[in-house]
Description:
The chain is of the alpha/beta class and 763 residues long. The chain is built from 28 helices and 22 strands. The strands form seven sheets. A seven-stranded parallel sheet has the order 1-7-9-10-11-12-13. It is globular, with a radius of gyration of 26 Å. The mean pLDDT is 95. It binds the ligand CN1c2c(nc(N)[nH]c2=O)NC[C@@H]1CNc1ccc(C(=O)N[C@@H](CCC(=O)N[C@@H](CCC(=O)N[C@@H](CCC(=O)O)C(=O)O)C(=O)O)C(=O)O)cc1, 2-amino-4-mercapto-butyric acid (HCS) and zinc ion (ZN). Keywords: Amino-acid biosynthesis, Metal-binding, Methionine biosynthesis, Methyltransferase, Repeat, Transferase, Zinc.
Amino acid sequence: xxxxxxxxxxxxxxxxxxxxxxxxWRKQLTQNELLQVAAQLRKNHWKVQxxxxxxxxxxxxxxxxxxxxxxxxxxxxVPKRYKRLGLSPLAEYFAQARGYQQGEVAVKALPMKKxxxxxxxxxxxxxxxxxxxxxxxxxxxxxxxxxxxxxxNAKAVVIGPYTLLKLSRFLEDTTAKNxxxxxxxxxxxxxxxxxxxxxxxxxxxxxxxCLDVTATEKELFKELYTGILTPKHTTKVLLxxxxxxxxxxxxxxxTLPFDGIGLDFLEGSYNAELVExxxxxxxxxxxxGVVNGKNVWRNHYVTTLKLxxxxxxxxxAPIVINSSTSLLHVPYSAATEEQLPADVRQHxxxxxxxxxxxxxxxxLKHDKIGNQQFLEKNDALFANVKHPYNxxxxxQSDHLQPNDYERTPERKERQQLQKEEFKLPLxxxxxxxxxxxxxxxxxxxxxxxxxxxxxxxxDKFNEEKxxxxxxxxxxxxxxxxxxxxxxxxxxxxxxxxxxxxxxxxKNGWVQSYGTRGVKPPIIWGDISRTAPIxxxxxxxAKNLTAKPVKGMLxxxxxxxxxxxxxxxxxxxxxxxxxxxxxxxEVFDLESNGIKIIxxxxxxxRENLPLRKSNWxxxxxxxxxxxxxxxxxxxxxxxxxxxHMCYSEFGDIxxxxxxxxxxxxxxxxxxADFTLIxxxxxxxxxxxxxxxxxxxxxxxxxxxEEVEALIEQIIKKLPLDRIWxxxxxxxxxxxxxxxxxxxxxxxxxxxxxxxxxxxxxxAF
Length: 763
Ligand SMILES: CN1c2c(nc(N)[nH]c2=O)NC[C@@H]1CNc1ccc(C(=O)N[C@@H](CCC(=O)N[C@@H](CCC(=O)N[C@@H](CCC(=O)O)C(=O)O)C(=O)O)C(=O)O)cc1
Ligand SMILES: N[C@@H](CCS)C(=O)O
Ligand SMILES: [Zn+2]
């Protein structure tokens, strides 16, 4: 056994799982039909891996929504409110992931958060006093039976108890510690069940061990696994880590009776030093993560073989060549991207190409005769790489001065000037930018893409949409309007397509959450803006209304983080180039009369290094200036908004304030209001719009519910610095849900305004 991967993309080459699941939700497919599509996809994916020559194939990495939710359901960690609905297991699972509304019965979805520093999202499990952990799920075992029947050399995969506890929510005074014995017993039972099935390896994913681990957490880790590994078992247990290095618990991992340890030698480059300094026992197997699961570039064999050689010379343990993370984070295959120039495409390795790389590396590592050609071909590729160079871009970024990053006058003064400029009511209402991307909007774009309609027809359709949505927003009574973002396929891909220096795929889909995917653009050359991007749509909307229209841009850090970056230059260099391109767009919006401009940075938080000690130097020190560079030179009366969603911002509040935006909207409705307390405690200076409507759920929030939320918010934050808005864009919702929710928000705001008025006489 010499090669494996941590996991494989499950949505299907043509996103079959997405389409089937969404049909099932719309009741156009039965549960059985959906299960059949899923089984066929697993079969295809195992076959692809087997045919590529992978020795050990992950099973259990498939999911209808999210693997952490799967693990929670496997262990009966399902809140009572979902069980009470009396649904089938699959329907109960989806109720947790998406919420449930049927007549009078309504249950919210569990919160969703970013999976470490990726653009993938997990569902947050919930522990309460009545959580009764026991092995109840059958999904993992049924999938293993399926794989074994198909002659697959299966490696069972689950998310580990440490990561599960670390990422969960604990309510009713429970703590992680309360659940250790029950969790250990349940995982031990999983191993016993795998033993019965004669499964050779169980991969337990513990990426949370690559975060900073405190002394107490270290004890938790030891206690959990002492309980899990003590009973006698023949299935070997692999502790699989990724997204970083294992420095805090390396010794403990070696001491515990794991049969294998999986280390990420790319993002966790320090792992190599750990192995060299502390050794690695010959009795364990090292699963060496050397093929990048998070980028799309070909592996440079010379570098990888050097690392593998050093490892072989340092340790006597058997080494399995592995991907550095699950391949979930890359698209399925580059082979069908024929539209890309051959000299670019040859540098790409998506999931299926990475399988080939693992096999070739294995052959080279074992010095199999005749394999030298792989090495020569690979080396030639790297010797001849030519990224397009733009001298003007370099001249601009080389001449940046400190004051290019400083906005004047200071924010307090600007806020005053802006209040006079816009004369907005107290608690101004707005949206985050996108309105529902209804079927006709996507079809219009698909037709244009296929050449079935002209550019003029495409634009006319979108203009009609803009005109309609401006009117609807006026009718609803929102204070700051948007144009609706109908022209965008995605908030990052769209900008990538308009900027020079990016390349795009036709079918490079990567799962973001549930059935939703993104097609990240790929940064290939120096980045520049060749023409205005958003000005026409914003100005068109502005001319239809007397209310202010907010211009909408995606920020430099988010464009960078949600693209596949180059690896030959530093992130700072690329992100500065993107910031300069967006700065031009901000100036153009401003000079065309757009006085409120939102620069979205939902991905600012997610790419923070996993270890806090690296946050500033490795990330915030270039991310924050990049944002400031985009907007610092606008007029004091131009109001700069930003928006963030899906992350815990509590620990980067200062950095967010440092962005020096005038207003920020963020997600708050799906989790809780902890962040509002943190903002209050930190004396946060940016005006804040905490989301009062969870757009990730089909539920329409009742007016009284929103009113109660606003009442809570105004008790905690300064009244004149609060905005009222949903927690993210409305692109994934239906118009019916969106308009009804917005009406409730506006009405609730009006009520709060008048009660404030009565009590304070201030309004
Ligand atoms: C805010 N979020 C985003 C993240 N990352 C991004 N890069 N972008 C984001 O917006 N990360 C965090 C969150 C994640 N949230 C989401 C939310 C919604 C989606 C989503 O809706 N994805 C869509 C695909 C959107 C898209 O690119 N559409 C294209 C092409 C659509 C398509 O498949 N067209 C079909 C025809 C369709 C038809 O006829 O009806 C085709 O071409 O065959 C477009 O609009 O043109 C999804 O469906 O998954 C993602 C992340
Ligand atoms: N302006 C974007 C932000 C999403 S994070 C939208 O409204 O969809
Ligand atoms: Zn958002």
